[in-house]
Amino acid sequence: MFGAFGRAFRTPDLRKKILFTIAMMVLFRVGSFIPAPGVDYGAVQSYSMGDNDLLALVNLFSGGALLQLSIFALGIMPYITASIIIQLLRVVIPRFETLHQDGQSGQAKLTQYTRYLTIALGVLQATTIVTLARTGQLLPGIDPIKDDSWWTAALMILVLTAGTGVIMWMGELITERGIGNGMSLLIFTSIAASFPSALGSIGGSNNGLSKLLGVIVMIVLVVGLIVFVEQSQRRIPVQYAKRMVGRKMYGGTSTYIPIKINMSGVIPVIFASSILAIPTMLAQFGDQSADWVVWVGRNLADPGAPLYLAVFIAMIIFFAFFYTAITFNPDEVADNMKKYGGFVPGIRAGRPTAEYLDYVITRITSAGSIYLALVALIPTLVFLALGVGANIPFGGTSIIIVVGVGLETVKQIDAQLQQRHYEGFLR
């Protein structure tokens, strides 16, 4: 493996791509520590997040920049939200589905729409964050803004929105000139940056060494499970019939459709976490002595509560099926196979093939959704059992993202090495 790293750095163009990617990741982290104009950095540094699930989720994807009110405080969340919204709108707006099927030109148009929506969401979220910070609801007990004038607030909104645009630009640069998917690598950077401090806080607590060892063992086991499942796939055999085009014979080859066990990735976990955090956020604005606020705090704000766990599992399973249905269309795949003379052995082309693919996808998604729910819950339950707390940055969502992005990046480097007749990382 270390030899493969050495060969990668000895290849000039691959070395440039890797170094460029690392440089962009470093710049992203540097921007997370530059405070926005008008922010009292010393006061912000003294704040402790507590048990705010929504704040913890957004702060996680910003690499800790949110609680420091830095220029990159919004992090990658506006782009993630915009991308998810554009994908969901494909089901509702036929124009978006047509663009998706138009190939590269249509994808370029959808990407442009995603950029516009990212900036719009950036303005909305920046306005919300600045308003909550000025009223003391973002960081309770802390006065993070030195000047309460309107132009300072407007400047902060402008800077935070511009920071979102810069992050989006950096991600696209990494995708174009570096290695791997830029946005995924920035998310990876944000999450991985919080690991050392979290491990240090665990090690410095009571019985810190035993807790730290327990957490490390859990992480190793969960990472092994994620790697095993993410690399697993169901291969549906496809046979192409021979056909004459002019004087040449085409077809007659055998291939397969690779279907991953977890086709939806980490999206269902992010959806479930975000939606479950909404009642907690609404409860913060209500009367703290009201019955519904107390009920929310006892059942939906505590990640260890039985109702929270049950709803969390149910929502992960639902969104796994929902998102898979959006991203994989059996009818479209069957039509494309029929168009090019392909068929599944033993299954008639056309409608029977689509029904067979739908049957296979449903079974695989059932196993994949249960796997996602287990991976999302195991770290939380282990943390609660060890007395560490449930809001540790390397929960199930974080570990899935880090491992998944790491695997995809290694695969891309491996493919680049294979093209140059080198032995890659994966054997």
Task: Write a structural description.
There is one protein chain. The protein folds into 2 domains: 1-194, Orthogonal Bundle (Preprotein translocase SecY subunit); 196-392, SecY subunit domain (Preprotein translocase SecY subunit, Orthogonal Bundle). The protein is built from 17 helices and 5 strands. It starts with a helix and ends in an 8-residue tail after the last helix. The chain has a 3-stranded antiparallel β-sheet with strand order 4-1-5. The longest helix has 36 residues, at 351-386. It is mainly α and 427 residues long. Strand 2 and strand 3 (248-250) form a beta hairpin.
In short:
Helices cover 68% and strands 5% of the residues.
Secondary structure topology:
Blueprint: H1 2-10, H2 12-31, H3 41-45, H4 53-61, H5 77-92, H6 94-101, H7 104-135, H8 150-177, H9 182-193, H10 195-203, H11 208-231, E1 233-240, E2 243-245, E3 248-250, E4 254-260, H12 267-284, H13 291-299, H14 306-327, H15 330-339, E5 342-343, H16 351-386, H17 396-419
Antiparallel strand pairs: 1-4, 1-5, 2-3
Helix pairs in contact: 2-8, 2-9, 5-6, 5-7, 6-7, 7-8, 8-9, 9-17, 10-11, 11-16, 11-17, 12-13, 12-14, 14-16, 15-16
Transmembrane segments: 18-36, 116-137, 149-171, 183-203, 209-229, 305-328, 369-386, 392-410
Subcellular location: Cell membrane; Membrane
Protein name: Protein translocase subunit SecY
